[in-house]
Amino acid sequence: MEQAAERGWRGSAELWLEGAHVLLVEGGVEAVKIGALADRLGLSRTSFYWHFADREALLAALVQRWRATNTAALVARIEAPAATVTEAILGLFDAWVDPGLFDSRAEFAMRTWALTDPSVARALAEEDAHRIAALTALFLRHGVPPVQADTRARTVYLTQVGYIALRSDEDFETRMARIPEYVLVFTGLAPSAAEVAAFRARHAVRSAAPEDR
């Protein structure tokens, strides 16, 4: 520890990874370069190599980070206990309304990256399949027949992917107003007033924030 202190602070692997994530979101994978990252963090290029073997190792860690955050957040919401299928879908919507749960900018960056990198495309296909399987299981738990469960799962998921791919820009209250109708479209059932009220209550802080209006 004393020797490391004498040589100066090299940051941590998580710090370098977080910095790389910001560069990826802001400028795509081409922007994730060791020199640019070191400059952004105010650290030396050589410090990077204490944590990662090379740029490829950093990029692999970025893919793993995305798997462990966005997919994990979605699956956690999908598998949360719910009394009705409409309540379950509203629970999933928590992730897509709250950027603290699901990072849509990172999702867009990953999908763009996958267009030019076969290994990332494979990872993306695996995560898409994982997420759709989890959604299908959600519908099956609530008594939806298998073929319909698969179709509804794909409708839910691909709609949100479309939002991300098109970088759809709608203000927070507009999206919130559409939520009950989306639940009806996706499940064939209207959510109860109590379910909608509970959903809105969970997001009341964002609803009140000036930047969301």
Task: For this entry, give a set of tags.
2 domains, single chain, 213 residues, disordered C terminus, 12 helices, elongated, Arc Repressor Mutant, subunit A
What is the element layout, followed by pairings?
Layout: H1 2-7, H2 13-27, H3 34-41, H4 45-48, H5 55-78, H6 85-97, H7 104-114, H8 118-141, H9 146-165, H10 172-187, H11 193-202, H12 204-208
Helix pairs in contact: 2-3, 2-7, 5-6, 5-8, 6-10, 6-11, 7-8, 8-9
Description:
- The structure is a single chain.
- The chain is mainly α and 213 residues long.
- The chain has two domains: 1-52, Arc Repressor Mutant, subunit A (Orthogonal Bundle), CATH 1.10.10; 65-212.
- It is built from twelve helices and no strands.
- It has helices spanning 2-7, 13-27, 34-41, 45-48, 55-78, 85-97, 104-114, 118-141, 146-165, 172-187, 193-202, 204-208.
- It starts with a helix and ends in a 5-residue tail after the last helix.
- 24% of the residues are buried.
- The model is unreliable at 1-8 and 208-213 (pLDDT under 50).
Shape by Cα distribution: elongated
Number of domains: 2
| Count of β-strands | 0
What is the number of helices? 12
Structural class: mainly alpha
Radius of gyration (CA) equals 20 Å
Strand content bin: under 5%
The major pleated sheet works out as:
none
Mean pLDDT: 91
Distance between the termini: 49 Å
Short structural description:
The chain has 213 residues and is mostly helical. The protein is 73% helix and 0% strand. The chain starts with a helix and ends in a 5-residue tail after the last helix.
